[in-house]
Write a structure and sequence with these properties.
The chain is an alpha/beta fold and 360 residues long. It folds into two domains: 181 residues, Rossmann fold (3-Layer(aba) Sandwich); 171 residues, Glycogen Phosphorylase B (Rossmann fold), CATH 3.40.50. Strand 11, helix 11 and strand 12 form a beta-alpha-beta unit. Helix 8 runs parallel beside helix 9. The chain is globular and about 60 Å long.
């Protein structure tokens, strides 16, 4: 198997460790822009792939042609489009694993506002991406609604594969945390967003939260993503809430971040597309009250599983009972759904099905 990671994160690192634990290391090669991030993982065969380096691309193509399957972990990086576009034979044995925003990046785009040259380049990239997606063998994701959107928008015949990434905040860590009863705490904690990305729509939600009464502080994870955007969110958050706005700008290890999630009462996500699932799963397992937008694909997926969620649109409309606690019966059911559906035991079986489908 030939894996491509041009966007690295805690998920990709956890995924490499997961594969080495559950599958034969000799069967998987990982191509990434930042191989140094994985050097301490002894058994991992990690190769450097800079799309601008012709010799590295040639090595990757040679490896991909010999591999039984090429697995493309996210389609954010347009530098990859050119090489995939001109190697159609590779697409016929390739699987794109959707991360979320990479399926919706053209949804609200209006590139003509940025000038003619930018518009032309963007149209070319869009054409190449459409060609790539239409010629893929399969598309893998947790939320089938994401696949359904891609299938309809790009008119692809790629088949659907159900998989999910192992959560970087794993169940063992969450189980080791002391269960806290935060209902009687005077100052509530609200988590807003999951990264320093404009898709979080921080400004809109922060301005809406300003209208709500009650004693609360806001934790805002901004360590991952665009630093300039992060600073703009910090400036707005401080202006609206002063010291009650607490930006989280340093990367935390898995346990430290789990402790942060365990300390909140309410989590609010304002994405219009599937995103932040790792955070959402961990929060639901910790029996926290979670708001996401009801028009997103993961709202339907989680609702169909029996999860109790709350609609971020109600906050935007000023109609949410924001700080009311989540009833214990619903909190416990959320925890059981996450334990059952997204366990470390279930994850290898799904990826094995994807790998075994190569010759089917």
């Amino acid at each position: 198997m030939c894996h491509i990671f041009l966007t690295d994160s805690i998920y990709t690192r956890k995924f490499v460790l997961f594969l080495l634990k559950n599958f034969s290391p000799q069967e998987h090669i990982f191509w990434t822009v930042n191989p140094e991030l994985y050097r301490d993982i002894g058994q991992a065969n990690v190769q450097k792939l800079d799309p601008k380096n012709i010799s590295e691309v040639a090595r990757f193509v040679k490896c991909a042609k010999k591999s039984s399957r090429v697995i493309i972990h996210s389609l954010f990086d347009a530098r990859l489009f050119f090489w995939l576009f001109f190697h159609k034979s590779l697409l016929k044995k390739s699987t794109w694993v959707i991360w979320g925003a990479d399926a919706y990046d053209y949804l609200d785009a209006n590139y003509s506002l940025k000038g003619f040259r930018f518009f032309v380049k963007s149209r070319i990239k869009r054409f190449m991406k459409r060609f790539i997606i239409r010629n893929l063998d399969s598309i893998a994701c947790l939320v089938k609604g994401d696949y359904d959107y891609v299938k309809d928008y790009y008119k692809t015949r790629a088949i659907y594969k159900y998989v999910f990434y192992p959560n970087p905040v794993d169940i063992d860590i969450l189980d080791s945390l002391k269960q806290t009863d935060l209902k009687e705490v005077e100052c509530k904690r609200i988590l807003v967003g999951n990264s320093a990305s404009p898709t979080n729509r921080h400004v809109e939600i922060l301005e809406s939260l300003k209208a709500y009464g009650g004693n609360f502080e806001i934790l805002c994870p901004l360590s991952y993503g665009d630093k300039q955007y992060a600073q703009s969110v910090i400036d707005i958050g401080k202006r609206l809430f002063g010291d009650r706005f607490i930006p989280l700008t340093d990367f935390l290890d898995a346990r430290s971040y789990a402790e942060v999630l365990n300390s909140v009462d309410v989590a609010v996500f304002n994405h219009k597309q599937q995103e932040a699932l790792g955070n959402i799963f961990a929060l639901l397992y910790l029996k926290k009250k979670v708001y996401i937008r009801s028009e997103t694909t993961h709202w339907k997926t989680l609702k169909d599983l029996g999860v109790t969620l709350f609609d971020t649109n109600l906050i935007l409309q000023g109609k949410a009972d924001l700080l009311a606690p989540l009833e214990e019966v619903y909190a416990e059911r959320n925890r059981e759904v996450i334990r059952r559906e997204f366990s470390e035991e279930n994850c290898p079986r799904l990826w094995a099905n994807l790998f075994d489908s190569v010759n089917s």
